[in-house]
Amino acid sequence: MSKRLGFGVDIGGSGIKAAPVLLGKGRLEQDRQRIETPQPSTPDAVAEVVARLLDHFGWHGAFGCTFPAVVQHGVVRTAANVDRSWIGVDAAALFTEVTGRRALVVNDADAAGVAEERFGAAADCDGTVLVTTLGTGIGSALLSGGKLVPNTELGHLLIDGEDAEHRASSAARDREELSWADWAARLTRYYRHLEDLLWPDLIVVGGGVSKHAAEWLPLVEARTALVPAALRNSAGIVGAALLAADQ
Ligand code: BGC
Predict the structure, then answer these.
(1) pTM flag (> 0.85)
(2) Which domains does the chain have, with CATH numbers?
(3) C-alpha distances in angstroms, 18 versus 152, 188, 241?
(4) Which of 8, 24, 52, 128 could pair with 240 as two cysteines, CB 3.0-4.6 Å apart?
(5) Averaged in consecutive runs of 10 residues, what is the pLDDT profile of the chain (247 residues)?
(6) Which atom of ligand 1 is nearest to the CA of 78?
(7) Probe ligand 1: pick from 16, 81, 162, max atoms within 8 Å of CB?
(8) Are 69 and 76 in contact (CB under 8 A)?
(9) CA-CA distance, 2 to 241, in Å (whole number)?
């Protein structure tokens, strides 16, 4: 039986990663390749790196690409943790033009959410799933019955008058050198607020720090089941490839 392949690119603040994806299995077909995000991370500089990654794998088909901001129908609308020159750029059109391959561009947490829902930690949950990614910022993906509500941006909820991601992201933990317990207390405040607003059946916690989930996840007190992401650092690539293959 032939294996269906797709291709995903994951654009982050420090690295741009890519790999071909086995669409029926939700995993990478080859090791991912990573190139440092150019600084400043202007649209043209980033598009050129995306083209290099596609060339590296000899991929000539359509592909999916994540972006760490609101992306409405391919157009970047915000820039919390990326170069402000992205605002208003049609990233899908730009990547399609520069690479010569049809690009789909989606929010990074939305891509991770789709991958976790289809093949990862939420694969057995058919209710409302909230996926959060704890990294430089806090990303969110809300899915119900397998359907994504795009661009939820729940990392920017105000908690005690402060942007949640400034208090509770993984970067905030590093910046303020918080112990696991102190960070977990902030996450408890955050997740309690989220669950009071959305009443999800399951919360999936992703981002690089989910690797160490055993250290801190049990310290977060929420009424909803909280589980670590299963696809780890391939979730964005896999989700982007799946969404591109869907269109
Ligand atoms: C952005 C989101 C993004 C998240 C994770 C936030 O600052 O507003 O769009 O998903 O960071 O990268």
Answers:
(1) yes
(2) 5-110+234-246 (3.30.420.40), 123-229 (3.30.420.40)
(3) 24, 33, 10
(4) 8
(5) 87 96 98 96 97 98 98 96 95 98 98 98 96 96 96 96 96 97 98 97 94 95 97 96 96
(6) 8
(7) 81
(8) yes
(9) 17
